[in-house]
Amino acid sequence: MKCIISQQDNTLALNVYVQPRASQNRVAGMHGNAVKICVTAPPVENNANEAVIHFIAKLLGVSKSSLSIKSGRQARNKKIIISNLALQ
After folding, report:
1. HSE-up of 8 (CA within 13 Å, CB side)?
2. pTM of the model
3. Which residues, in sequence order, are bridge partners of residue 44?
4. Full set of structural domains in the chain with CATH
5. What is the pLDDT of residues 39-85, one digit of tens each?
6. Closest CA to 63 of 88, 86, 47, 45
7. CA 12 from centroid of its chain's CA atoms
8. Tens of pLDDT along 27-52?
9. What are the backbone angles phi and psi of residue 41, rounded to the nearest 5°?
10. Which of 11, 54, 69, 79 has its CA 20 to 30 A from that of 46?
């Protein structure tokens, strides 16, 4: 899967394309080499970034503190790092 950039120990890097101000929070499929995630939050004052982190954490069943945005804080294309993930 090209949306997964790297995988080391219990850490995963994921390419994400964010669509803010969507009608609902959801995974909308693929957008190029990224997972497209729609969030209802607007891209103002970090609201959309926080919504993406919260949504992915809930989806994967990990704490929000396990996720961080490595790049793309002010762009739709983001690289999200997921730590402490037990991959099976």
Report:
1. 4
2. 0.88
3. none
4. 15-65 (3.30.1200.10)
5. 999 999 999 999 999 999 999 899 999 999 999 999 999 999 999 87
6. 86
7. 11
8. 999 999 999 999 999 999 999 999 99
9. -70, 145
10. 11
